[in-house]
């Protein structure tokens, strides 16, 4: 379980996150929503080690991970993706996946000279794992395609596939649906649910697509002005007066009561 306690993140006089407290239950797919400027991505960056908090604590399964760098959190199984995918565009999709696991034998110059057999066996195993991941994500046909040639949605699937090349425990997804067509978004949603159900992944996602959030997420957490405004099921959130006022808009309220 990730527990965020009274996190503040200030940029000069601006309080991007202003005392946020929340929990991400182990085994959940937790949604994080809110208007632009609510502090969602900044909070993600604090939890995932991209930013150090001004104050407050983050724990994972009881261990204080506040301020740990992304590579240290990676070793603990906490990963994040970004709204804009970060692929190695000149490498193939398979090669992008094979790059992920740390401490590979071929990473040192000495081993490239004196451990060539071990490197070859390791790369063969990584290629098999990568192909299994691509099959799971239903994009095996893209294995030898240059990653830079993928569509936005395919790149999001590739980023999800990268998490499967590690011993991931908790994955933070930043607007996985941004710029993705509905067909691919459904494929991404199916993959997230299967990873959660079959492999025990815990997810927390920032997303603006309420239909997508409603399909996948429970609980849903709403942020506004750097604070947690509400938490509950998607139905709870849609009927919360404070949330309607701050984020969802009076149009939804009037529709619900019509």
Write up this protein:
With 258 residues, the protein is an alpha/beta fold. The protein is 41% helix and 22% strand. It has helices at residues 40-47, 70-75, 93-98, 109-114, 116-136, 152-163, 182-199, 210-216, 234-238, 241-248, 250-257, and strands spanning 2-11, 14-24, 29-33, 55-60, 63-64, 78-80, 170-174, 202-206, 220-224, 227-232. A hairpin with a 2-residue loop joins strand 4 and strand 5 (63-64). It is globular, with a radius of gyration of 20 Å.
The name of the CATH topology of the largest domain is Rossmann fold
Number of strand elements = 10
Largest beta sheet, briefly?
Answer: 6 strands, mixed
Instruction: State the CATH architecture of the largest domain.
Output: 3-Layer(aba) Sandwich
Uncertain spans: 251-258
Helix/strand order: EEEHEEHEHHHHEHEHEEHHH
Q: Alpha-carbon distance between the termini?
A: 40 Å
C-alpha geometry: globular
Mean pLDDT score, rounded?
A: 88
The helical percent reads 40-55%
CATH homologous superfamily annotation of the largest domain: P-loop containing nucleotide triphosphate hydrolases
Would you summarize the structure shown here?
With 258 residues, the protein is of the alpha/beta class. It has helices at 40-47, 70-75, 93-98, 109-114, 116-136, 152-163, 182-199, 210-216, 234-238, 241-248, 250-257, and strands at residues 2-11, 14-24, 29-33, 55-60, 63-64, 78-80, 170-174, 202-206, 220-224, 227-232. Strands 6-7-8-3-9-10 form a six-stranded mixed β-sheet, sandwiched between helices. It has a four-stranded antiparallel β-sheet with strand order 2-1-4-5, covered by helices on one side.
